[in-house]
Amino acid sequence: MVGQEILEIGSGSFGLAYFYPHPIVGCDLNFPFPPRRSMRPVICSAVNLPFPDRSFEAVVASDVLEHVSTRDRQATVREALRVTRKVAVFGFPSGPLAYAQDREFLEYHRRLRRVPPDWLVEHMQHPFPTAGVFSDFQDEWRIECFGNESLRFHDWVNRREISPVWARLLGLPVKLAPRLVERVLQTFDREPFYRKIFVLTPQVDAGAPAKCSKAN
Question: HEC profile for the chain?
Answer without folding.
Answer: CCCCCEEEECCCCCHHHHCCCCCEEEEECCCCCCCCCCEEEEECCCCCCCCCCCCEEEEEEECCHHHCCHHHHHHHHHHHHHHEEEEEEEEEECCHHHHHHHHHHHHHHHHCCCCCCHHHHHHCCCCCCCHHHHHHHCCCEEEEEEEEEEHHHHHHHHHHHCCHHHHHHHHHHHHHCHHHHHHHHHCCCCCCEEEEEEEEEECCCCCCCCEECCCC
